[in-house]
Amino acid sequence: MRTLEKVRKLPIRRSWTHWLVATVLVVIGLFAGDYISKKMIFERALYPIFGKLQSVSPRPIRPRRTVLVLIGDQEFYGERLAHRTPTKRDYLADLIRKLSDAGPELIALDFTMRSASGQDSKENPEYEQETSKLKQAITEASLKTKLVLAITVAKEENSDSYSVEPTVLDDLYEKNLPLAKGFVHLPEDQRRVPLTLKSSSNMTIDSFAAAAVRLVDGTALAEAEANRVGALPFGTFIEPAKFKTLSASEVLTTDPVKLKSDIACKIVLIGGVWHATPQGRPFESDLFLTPVGKLDGVFVHANFIEALLDSRTYRPLGPWVAISLEALLSSIVAVILGLTWPLWRRLRLLVLVCAFLVLLSYVLWQNLGVFFDCFVPILLLVIHVLVERLLG
Fold first, then answer.
1. What's the rounded Cα separation, in Å, for the pair 53 and 362?
2. CB 144 within 8 A of CB 101
3. Shortest CA distance to 313 belongs to which of 251, 371, 390?
4. What does the alpha-carbon distance between residue 214 and residue 228 come to, in Å, rounded to a whole number?
5. What is d(CA 199, CA 183) in angstroms, rounded to the nearest whole number?
6. Other C-beta atoms lying within 10 Å of the C-beta of residue 41
7. Are 174 and 274 contacting, i.e. CB atoms less than 8 angstroms apart?
8. Which one of 284, 311, 338 terminates a domain?
């Protein structure tokens, strides 16, 4: 009762036009915020905030299970690869052979081996011999370790299902090898961990990360799927400098004993990180904006694998829960801005409220496994008060 009495005594603006406009702005802000979030209009601008939020986690975030083997400028523009696209298959075959002898838990090859026609698994005659060597290397390696190969998928017309596009390695899946495939398409929102898609035959198509995790820890993948709740879960990101990386040249030339000490019992991802030119101009289309900056695709996949295996996936709030919470917080802000105090005093209180919202988001994310943000309605309310002051 005392609290209600104190609220009644607050110097709140009584103008009905002010509250009508404020109410309309809150409603517009709620729908606009949802639309902006779905269309990723401002989300990428908020990535650094997401990155800072995860950096203050009491639990150290570092790679524990993955090692990256990178084909960079030195290899790609070198004599053997000769900056050819597609990447020479016999070179990849040599990498897989050398790595499989070092005892990794799994090898994941982040290269899509699209077929020549796009309609079947036939190879271009020019590449048949080297592709045959790659197939043989994969077959031999599968006797020593598990493997994941990259595929691409296409959404079918007038449907929510997907079809797998053919590759020149498709016949390997018919040999009952410990071999999986995963699509390398990444979600528009890089904070979300790609898991599975449904095919037209109602079969599950794993993402590249999900295929790797399914082979080494199916329980971890099941936990992430449980956090899906109608939308892909959020995941945390690790800076690329923290990953253990080896160049492809190092792998091919290093002592087998030393290589084994680096990658034994690890998930090894093979990927390309070369630039558009030998001078270092990047392929912007092959870089993905994440909460820890722009990353090559192989680093993004490694982050997803680490997040899944380390149980660092977080379900988003349900839409109605999020809207209700946003409406409540927006109403509190509207009351604060509706006070007849000096503007500087109201804005100071608003800053404290926003700091509370950041803390609330952090607590929800760290302890309840949900991620929450709501600032569009608040921004509109602040603009409303500033405009009123200018016009008044």
1. 7
2. yes
3. 371
4. 16
5. 12
6. 11
7. no
8. 311
Q: What is the DSSP letter of 330?
A: H
The answer to whether residue 179 is domain-embedded is yes
Statement to judge: residues 294 and 326 lie in one domain: no
Residue labelled with tokens 């053919």: 166
Neighbours of 14 (CB within 10 A): 9
- Whether pTM > 0.90 for this model: the answer is no
Distance CA 189, CA 215 (A): 26
Which secondary structure element, helix H or strand E, spans residue 163, and what is its range? Answer: strand 162-164
Tokens representing 379 are: 């921004």
Q: pLDDT of 102-123, one tens digit each? A: 999 999 999 998 877 666 677 8
SS3 state of residue 188: coil
Domain range for 375: 15-57+315-391
pLDDT digits 0-9 by tens, 267-313: 999 999 998 877 767 665 578 989 898 999 999 999 999 999 998 88
Among residues 256, 277, 311, the one where a domain terminates is: 311
Regarding whether 157 and 111 lie in a shared domain, the answer is yes
**How far apart, in whole angstroms, are the C-alpha atoms of residue 226 and residue 233?**
9
Q: How far apart are the first and last CA of the chain?
A: 35
- Torsion region of 189: left, alpha or beta (phi above 0 gives left; psi -120 to 50 gives alpha): beta
Residue 4 in any domain: the answer is: no
Does one domain contain both 142 and 260? Answer: yes
**Residue 376 and residue 227 share a domain:** no
Query: Is residue 181 a contact partner of residue 173, using CB atoms and an 8 Å limit?
Result: yes
Residues 327 and 259 in one domain: no
